[in-house]
Amino acid sequence: MFNSLKTKILTSYLILILLITGVAVWSINNFLGLSSAINDIMVENYRSVVAAENMMGALERQDSAQLLFLFGKEERGQELFRESEREFLKWLSRAEDNITIAEEEEIIKRINDGYLKYLQDFDQLQPKYRQDSSQAREFYLAEIMPHFNQVKEWAQELLTVNQEAMVSAQQKANSNANEAVYSTAIVSILAIIFALVFGIYISNLILKPTEKLIKTVKKVGEGDLTQEIKVNSKDEIGELAYEFNQMTERLKEYEEMNVTKLIAEKNKSEAIVKSIDSPIIVTDKEHRIVLLNPIAERLFQISEEEVIGKHFLEVIKEERIFQKIEQVAEEEGLKSDNKQEVLKMDFEEQERYYRLMVTPVPGKEERVNRVITLLDDITHLKEIDDLKSDFVSTASHEFRTPLTSMNMGLSLLLEETPGGLNKNQHDLLAAAYEDCQRLIELVDDLLDLSKIESGEIQIEFDDVDLADLVEASVRPLQKQAQEQQIELLKKIPADLPPVKADPNKIVWVLSNLIGNALRYTKGEGQVKVKANQKGKRVYVSVIDTGIGIPEEYHDKIFDKFVRVKGDAAINVSGTGLGLAIVREIVEAHSGKIWVESEVDQGSTFTFTLPVAK
Amino acid sequence: MSKILLVEDDKNIILAIKICLEEAGYQVTVVRNGVTAVERAFAEKPDLILLDILLPKLNGYLVCEALQEDEETKEIPIVVLSVKSEQKDIQKAMQLGAADYLVKPFEPEELLTKVEENI
């Protein structure tokens, strides 16, 4: 019946307006009744009352006129009588015209008859008076007086009847007014009750489906797409509900589609992980195991089914791996750990080497969601590397024996122990001796590097005072500096905290850097060793005023056998291994090393060391 | 004139060391293997022994041990000459009774200094 919300609202308004109109009509009707009752009193009875009073007045005056006549004033009496007669008749006719009560007619008829007799009496009185005045007086008392009283009485009756009618009319009006009050009150109350009930009904009619709609929308909003709104009305809300159901339906389809895609993606990545023949463990942000590939199952001797959802450490007792996972998960900026850490583990009772690679997987808002731990099996590489180190080590040792005799021989010749030399002989031997020295240095460096690279050299950490290390490095080079006319300075703050370092290795690093600085400073100049603390690290710099390093070498310079082009031309010896070893040592101290330099201005080599805890 | 026993198997090194020491006024006896070294040490009682580690028949460590066991040779200072430069090699030699250690290659002055210090 109601097809739209608008009609519903309009209809309910219309009904309420009709109701108000009804109440108004009813009230007006009541007021009208009341006013007509008052009118009745005025019109119907009041006039008769006035007429009766006037009739009584006229009659009194006629009586007085007769008395005047009887006392000799004939003319005056007759005149007054006739005048009053006209007056009486006027009011009588008024009364006759205004008969409203049944009794009135009869009373008036009686007055009419009585008054006629009274008039006839006066007609008889006139001749009698002329004959005998005393007889006339007796006639008046005997005949006229009773008639006069009779008419007066009847006029009085007319008055009374009308007065009573007025009283009753007033009572009627009063009761009418009361009735009007009650009936209006009842009608109003009924109307209010109806309006209330109707209002509730209409608002329910509109709000019920709205509430249903809200509830369902909320549930859908929370992700429950199985919800359907059941609204039967065909109004706007019904339409809204229908459209909403359609939308939910489409959302459901869309979601199902996405879920299918996601499952496909998941299966794909799982398949990839499982097919990789390096152990992979995927953990969530609480470090629970999410995924494991078969090779990892074999390595850790666990089965995926049993460990999924369990904490990493509960299943895999490898503190070192877990530390790295924790570190990567906590670090901001989602950096994967590129530092190559090699772990030695038993794989089915066979010793194998794994490179640990831990990569964070971002979730929402750049936060770590998953961590992928890959153990890259580098046993084969390690074997080759060991072979290389062995070879280098053996070769270096083998070189040392011939170098010993060569060095001694050349040295003795140059000292002219076996006999004097001419200038050319001396120069040639000096050149051979210099190269022999270079070879010795190279062999030493190669040996050092191969040892560090193979991890053969253990870094022995100690809490040490950097000032002591600098002193130990500078002292042996002081003489060389003086010879070169280079100022060798130390600038170590007195309050510098101790560092966590292997003193021998750091002295080696410093000696190497200072040695380089001296070597690359031609003519007068300055070499300065400086240190300062920044947070949990101490920055150590070796600053020279030497020839500087072109920018393209700033990164490469720490690689093996890299030498700046033109080094040979300016007659600088070196093996090209020193800085590679320096970097290995600094990195073994979890530090960094870099160079800032400008050609012809000088170079600054800076490395960091951890402050001792 | 101080007597020095040189235990070394490389003929070129022998030549260089011999010239170096003889020019400095020492009397040098050369042996080329560990066994002969021990025999000669007992027989000659040199003032100082220059000992290589990598030797035929009996290596330098064993020569050290053998000489330490006998009262007569125990007091002879031994300076080890070796291509092994690691701390653990040096420590081992010192524990077995060596007085000093010189890593090859070295300068003639270094050798002379070590000899003078220990003789």
Shape of chain B: globular
Radius of gyration of chain A: 68 Å
Q: Give average pLDDT of chain A, whole number.
A: 85
Unreliable runs of chain A? none
Q: What is the helix/strand order of chain A?
A: HHHHHEEHHHHEEEHHEHEEHEEHEE
Q: Architecture of chain B, according to CATH?
A: 3-Layer(aba) Sandwich
In the CATH hierarchy, the third-tier topology of the largest domain in chain A is known as: Four Helix Bundle (Hemerythrin (Met), subunit A)
What is the beta-strand fraction of chain B? 15-25%
What count of helical segments of chain B does DSSP give?
6
Rg of Cα set of chain B: 13 Å
| Helix/strand class of chain B | alpha/beta
CATH homologous superfamily title of chain B = Response regulator
Keywords for this entry:
heterodimer; A: alpha+beta; Four Helix Bundle (Hemerythrin (Met), subunit A); 5-stranded antiparallel β-sheet; 5-stranded mixed β-sheet; rod-shaped; B: 119 residues; alpha/beta; Rossmann fold; 6 helices; 5 strands; 49% helix; globular
Written description of the protein model:
The complex is a heterodimer of chains A (613) and B (119). Chain A is of the alpha+beta class and 613 residues long. In chain A, 64% of the residues lie in helices and 14% in strands. Chain A has 4 domains: 5-199, Four Helix Bundle (Hemerythrin (Met), subunit A) (Up-down Bundle); 276-377, Beta-Lactamase (2-Layer Sandwich), CATH 3.30.450.20; 383-451; 458-610, Heat Shock Protein 90 (2-Layer Sandwich). Chain A has helices at 5-70, 74-97, 102-131, 133-221, 236-275, 294-300, 304-307, 312-315, 319-330, 379-414, 423-453, 466-484, 503-519, 578-588; strands at 280-284, 289-292, 337-346, 351-362, 368-377, 462-464, 486-491, 499-501, 525-534, 537-544, 593-598, 602-610. Chain A has a 5-stranded antiparallel beta sheet, sandwiched between helices. Chain B has 119 residues and is of the alpha/beta class. The longest helix of chain B is centred in the first third of the chain and has 13 residues, at 11-23. The mean pLDDT of chain B is 92. Chain B has helices at residues 11-23, 34-44, 60-69, 71-74, 87-95, 108-118, and strands at 3-7, 27-31, 48-52, 78-82, 100-103. Chain B is globular, with a radius of gyration of 13 Å. Helix content of chain B is 49%, strand content 20%. In chain B, helix 2 (34-44) packs parallel to helix 3. In chain B, strands 2-1-3-4-5 form a 5-stranded parallel beta sheet, with helices on both faces. In chain B, helix 5 (87-95) links the parallel strand 4 (78-82) and strand 5 (100-103).
